[in-house]
Amino acid sequence: AALQGRPGGDRRNMGDVYMKTILTAAVAAAAGFALVGEAAATEWNVSVWGKRRAFTEHVEKLAELVSAKTNGEFTMNISYGGLSKNKENLDGISIGAFEMAQFCAGYHRDKNPSITVLELPFLGVNTLAEEVAVSHAVYGHEAAQKNPSI
């Protein structure tokens, strides 16, 4: 939920920074796949749930930017519930049913015990910048690295 922003935060500037970071990683991944050869995937299936909404706009924007930056060589096909149920997205990635998914850590407390802290309602995060910093700290912590699904 780091991309949703929080009241009082500068969503546009932090969103731009976050998008540039995500885009750089995605383009680097696409370039890495290109180096692998013919077997490399140039198309990713992406599983999200529900309908297109504010919570999923970052995925839509990422797909648009990755396609533009790679001249259409790397595309992301976003499916809203067609690839998996909302509580099965993490397992779908694990078994290779699709390449990317949005999931809620709370649905997978047994698989992601350390990162569920990010879903606490009164975490005390006031801006998107703080939320991004907290998320990076949690995901980078050794306890989170030991989670089975990270």
Characterization of this structure:
The structure is a single chain. Helix 1 (11-36) packs across helix 2 (57-69). The chain starts with 10 loop residues before the first helix and ends in a 5-residue tail after the last helix. It is globular and about 40 Å long. The protein has 5 helices and 3 strands; from the N terminus they run H-E-H-E-H-E-H-H. The protein has helices at 11-36, 57-69, 89-94, 128-140, 142-145; strands at 43-48, 75-80, 100-101. The chain is mostly helical and 150 residues long. Mean pLDDT is 77; it is low at 1-19 and 31-39.
Class based on secondary structure composition and strand pairing = mainly alpha
> Order of SSEs, N→C?
HEHEHEHH
Total number of beta strands: 3
Largest sheet: 3 strands, parallel
Radius of gyration, in angstroms, nearest whole number: 16 Å
Strand content: 5-15%
Strand order of the largest sheet: 2-1-3
**Uncertain regions: pLDDT < 50 for 5+ in a row?**
1-19, 31-39
Tell me the distance between the termini. Answer: 17 Å
- Counted by DSSP, the helix tally is 5
Percentage of residues assigned to helices: 40-55%
Q: Report mean pLDDT, rounded to a whole number.
A: 77
Morphology: globular
Task: Spell out the key features of this protein.
about 150 residues; disordered N terminus; globular; three-stranded parallel beta sheet; mainly alpha
Brief overview:
The protein has 150 residues and is mainly alpha-helical.
SSE topology sketch:
Blueprint: H1 11-36, E1 43-48, H2 57-69, E2 75-80, H3 89-94, E3 100-101, H4 128-140, H5 142-145
Parallel strand pairs: 1-2, 1-3
